[in-house]
Design brief:
354 residues; alpha/beta; Rossmann fold; rod-shaped
C-alpha cells in the first residue's frame, strides 16, 4: 500500500501528437501515476514548467513543429528541468537514433508499438533511479554544507589563535595589545592600495599580527627597560626577528609562511641599514616592506611609557621623511595619501576605547 501511495504522488508527462497513443499510455499508467499530457513540443515545454515539475517525461520524437529531440535538448539545457528523466517513445529505434537520443540526455528508449509491461517497468525503474539520485544529491549537499561549516570553523579558530598570539607578544612591552590590531589594519589598507586582492590583503592582515612574536624570547630586563638601550642590549633586541621566524617555523600553510616572512623582514630598511640580514630595496619582501610602514607609523602615534603619542600628521610627516631611506618610497607615498582611512582606523582601535 505504501508503494501505491508513493507512485500516485509521481507525475508522468506524456507527450505525443497522436491522441490514440496518449490514450494507450494513460491506460497503462493511469492506475499508478498522475498522468499529464501534451500533444506538441511547444505544449510539452509549457507543461514541464507549469506548476509542479513532472517526475518523468515520455516523449515522442516525430512531431510537427518542435520535435522530440528539440524538446529534450531544451529541457536538458534548463537547470530547472535537466534532472527530469526523459524516455523517448518512438518508432525510430535504430542504433543511430538511440545513440543520438542518449547523446542529448535521454534516459531510455521504448519502441512503438509499446508493450504495457515494458512501459510500466521502464517508468518505475527510472523513477526509482531518479529518487535515488536526488537522495544522493541531498546527502552530498548536506555533507558538503557540514564540511564547509567545519572548514570555516577551523579557519576562524586558526585566525583567532594568530590574533591572540600577536596580542600576547605585544602585551609584554606595551600597555595594551591594540598596536597589533591597528598595525594589521594599516597593512591590509596598504596592501589593497598597492594591488593586493581582497583575499591577499586579508591574509596579510592576519599574518602581520605575528610580526613581533619573537619578543617572547627577549628578557624582560631589556624589553621593559625605560632607559636607552646599550649597544649590546640593542643587538639582543634585534634577535627577535629570527626568534619570531623560528617560533612560526617552516609551515605548509601559506598564511604562516607569510607570517614567518614578515616576522623575519619587517625591520629591514630600504637603504640596507636594517636587520637581521641587511636587505635593501626590493630585495626585502613586499609584505615585510608594507608591515614596516604600518609598524613605524603606529609606534610613533601610540603612547608608550617613555614617550607621548605623536599626532597623525606628525606620524605621516615622519613616514614621508623616511621614504627612500628606511621605507619603500612608493609604499610611503601610498600610505600618506590615505589620511582619511588611517584616521578611521586610529579612532576605531584607539587604546583608550578598547
Amino acid at each position: 500500500m505504501l508503494m501505491d501511495t508513493q507512485e500516485h504522488a509521481k507525475s508522468v508527462l506524456v507527450v505525443d501528437d497522436c491522441t490514440e497513443n496518449i490514450d494507450i499510455m494513460k491506460g497503462i499508467l493511469g492506475a499508478y501515476f498522475n498522468v499529464r499530457v501534451a500533444t506538441s513540443g511547444q505544449m510539452a515545454l509549457k507543461a514541464a514548467h507549469a506548476g509542479r515539475l513532472p517526475d518523468l517525461i515520455l516523449l515522442d520524437v516525430m512531431m510537427a513543429g518542435v520535435d522530440g529531440y528539440a524538446v529534450c535538448r531544451t529541457l536538458k539545457a534548463d537547470a530547472l528541468t535537466r534532472h527530469i528523466p526523459v524516455i523517448f517513445v518512438t518508432a525510430r529505434s535504430s542504433p543511430q537514433d538511440e545513440s543520438y537520443g542518449f547523446s542529448i540526455g535521454a534516459a531510455d528508449y521504448i519502441a512503438k508499438p509499446v508493450s504495457p509491461p515494458v512501459v510500466l517497468a521502464r517508468v518505475r525503474t527510472h523513477l526509482a533511479l531518479a529518487d535515488r539520485s536526488r537522495h544522493l544529491e541531498e546527502l552530498v549537499g548536506e555533507r558538503t554544507a557540514s564540511l564547509q561549516a567545519r572548514t570555516r570553523e577551523l579557519e576562524n579558530t586558526r585566525i583567532e589563535i594568530i590574533r591572540r598570539l600577536g596580542r600576547a607578544g605585544e602585551y609584554r612591552d606595551y600597555e595594551t595589545g591594540m598596536h597589533v590590531i591597528r598595525l594589521s589594519q594599516y597593512a591590509r589598507l596598504l596592501g589593497r592600495a598597492c594591488g593586493y586582492t581582497e583575499f591577499e590583503a586579508e591574509q596579510l592582515m592576519y599574518a602581520s599580527m605575528l610580526h613581533d612574536i619573537g619578543k617572547i624570547g627577549i628578557p624582560d630586563a631589556i624589553l621593559l627597560k625605560p632607559d636607552r638601550l646599550s649597544s649590546a642590549e640593542f643587538e639582543q633586541i634585534k634577535t627577535h626577528c629570527r626568534i619570531g621566524a623560528d617560533i612560526i617555523g617552516e609551515q605548509d600553510c601559506e598564511l604562516l609562511q607569510l607570517a614567518r616572512e614578515i616576522a623575519l623582514t619587517h625591520h629591514e630598511k630600504w637603504n640596507g641599514g636594517g636587520y637581521p640580514a641587511g636587505l635593501d630595496g626590493e630585495n626585502i619582501p613586499l609584505a615585510g616592506r608594507i608591515t614596516a610602514v604600518a609598524d613605524v607609523f603606529d609606534a610613533l602615534t601610540s603612547r608608550r611609557p617613555y614617550k607621548p603619542a605623536w599626532s597623525m600628521e606628525e606620524g605621516l610627516a615622519y613616514i614621508t621623511g623616511q621614504a627612500g631611506i628606511s621605507l619603500d618610497p612608493a609604499l610611503a607615498g601610498l600610505f600618506v595619501g590615505m589620511r582619511d582611512e588611517i584616521g578611521r582606523i586610529m579612532q576605531q582601535f584607539d587604546d583608550a576605547q578598547n
